[in-house]
Amino acid sequence: MPKPILITGATGNQGGAVLRQLATHPSSPQFTLLAVTRNPDSLSAEKIINRHPAVKLVKGDLNNVASLFASAQQALKESGRDSKIWGVYSVQIPHGSGATIPTEIQQGKALIDESIKHGVKHFVYSSVERGGNEKSWHNKTPVPHFQSKYQIEHYLKAQAGPKGEKMGWTILRPVAFMDNLAPGFPTKVFLAALRDTLREKPLQWISVEDIGVFAAKAFRETDVWNARAEGLAGDELTFEEMSGCFERITGYSAPVTYGMFGSALLWALTDVRVMINWFKTDGYGVDIGRLREEEKDLCDFETWLKERSGWV
Q1: How far from chain centre, in Å, is Cα 123?
Q2: Which residue of 58, 105, 235, 271 has the lowest C-beta tally within 10 Å?
Q3: Is 9 exposed, middle or buried (0-12, 13-18, 19+ CB in 10 A)?
Q4: d(CA 127, CA 12)
Q5: pLDDT digits (tens, 9 = 90+) for 63-80
């Protein structure tokens, strides 16, 4: 019988990537995919069904996980699969749409508790990289929305068991998202802040689609991925190297605006300022070469620009 996987954030970037990677892989028949959405009638939910007709939409959100699980079980019954939820993909946002860091922590912990209560077999949590696989366990960093994920990680490990005794688990720790560099003025401002702060310091990047690749691996290969926390990055570039990628692929250097706009961003948004300063003083620590041995198609920045971005 197919194993039901509940995917939070299914209409967003990360959850959407997980959904695609599970739905399009040859192993997809072994899973029943349950996509969480606040509004099943939304355009984004409609797109999911149009692209992946076998996916089941589940109405709910992370502010009431008990109701969310009840809706998921009802969706399974209506599809003739009266089975328990086998897997959960967990992602929360700290900002936007009423989200705050306290709500992120509350939602993350509540989803862990409810998953254990319902006998979920494998739980994949999307966190953030904090300086290397081992260092990340001990490094909260000064960045508020990194600290929240640190808390949720340790709660998951404590509640599910260090070796997954109560519930199997995997923690994925992505670095900066290439996909956040969408065409438009906000990207120009952000890159101006990066350029003027990091200067010659390289920064690691990941394509969101590759987060989906590794989450799907974790569900398919639980014997390999149980009780494992892994940093995810596909490239490491200085600003000059990034600009070179833009020139080769788009014909133009990296899109930036005047430095004063980058400075204004850092002045206005404390969380962003602390994060970019941490990039400068510390930074991510993924062993990209080792990760590429595990996933040979890991996307580098130039490939992302050419094949996955909106720049060409």
Answers
A1: 14
A2: 271
A3: buried
A4: 15
A5: 999 999 999 999 998 877
Phi and psi based region of residue 199 (left: phi greater than 0; alpha: psi -120 to 50; beta: remaining): left
Q: Does the pLDDT value for residue 28 go beyond 90?
A: no
Six-digit token string for 284: 């991510």
CB 173 within 8 A of CB 229: yes
Q: What percent of the chain has pLDDT over 90?
A: 91
Burial 69-92 (b: 16+ CB within 10 A, else e): bebbbebbeeeeeeeebbbbbbbb
In the chain, count H helices and then E strands.
14, 10
Bridge partners of residue 57, in order along the sequence:
35
Please give the pLDDT value at position 218.
98
CA 181, chain centre distance (Å)? 15
Length of the chain: 312
pTM, two decimals, is 0.96
**What token pair was written down for 133?**
């696989």
Q: Say if residues 254 and 239 touch (Cβ distance below 8 Å).
A: yes
Residue ranges of domains in the chain, CATH in brackets:
3-176+207-233+285-295 (3.40.50.720)
Burial class (CB within 10 angstroms; exposed 0-12, middle 13-18, buried 19+) of 119:
exposed
